[in-house]
User: What shape does this take?
Amino acid sequence: MNETIFRISTALILVTGISISSYFRSKADRNSGEKLSRNLDGKLLMFLIAIGGLVLWLSPIIYLINPDWMAWSKLGLPELARWFGIVLGVVCLGLLYWMFSSIGSGITPVSATRKNHQLVTHGIYRWIRHPLYTLGTSLFVSVSLMTDSWFILVMAGLAFTILAIRTPKEEANLIEKFGNEYREYMQRTGRFLPKF
Assistant: This one.
């Protein structure tokens, strides 16, 4: 019975996360009139992001179809940890909505900025410069807890690492666009976590 609850929770959290992201990303493309090419970050990096993302997304889908197919990656977590995964997932969804609402049409699939992009320093961006990377990783940590899978956890860590490698290029683009305003913003905020 409980496995059914974890499967339903995983499905709901993933579908809700995809819906939030798709809605705000398509709205940003419409509002800006731009659809940025994914090749702006280089073919190798985009290939790694695409392959890593595919494996990361397919793993919970395989679990949803039949949990036995992912049994080889079972952690053996206590049920309480799996319930914590549900709570973490719901919190991440709320924070993702807040993040996308804050950045508005400035969201892009690449490290480049849109032509009319304004520097966003409110909402969650008041404390963190790249909350999407933190929240996306946290969402998949929650999925790894719900599915009881070390493989999904490892894939989330690899995806975060690839995105962290891309981050300096993204920040260089932002410095080029916003200059000292972005440099000052960097001094007050953490890259992936709030600065204390």
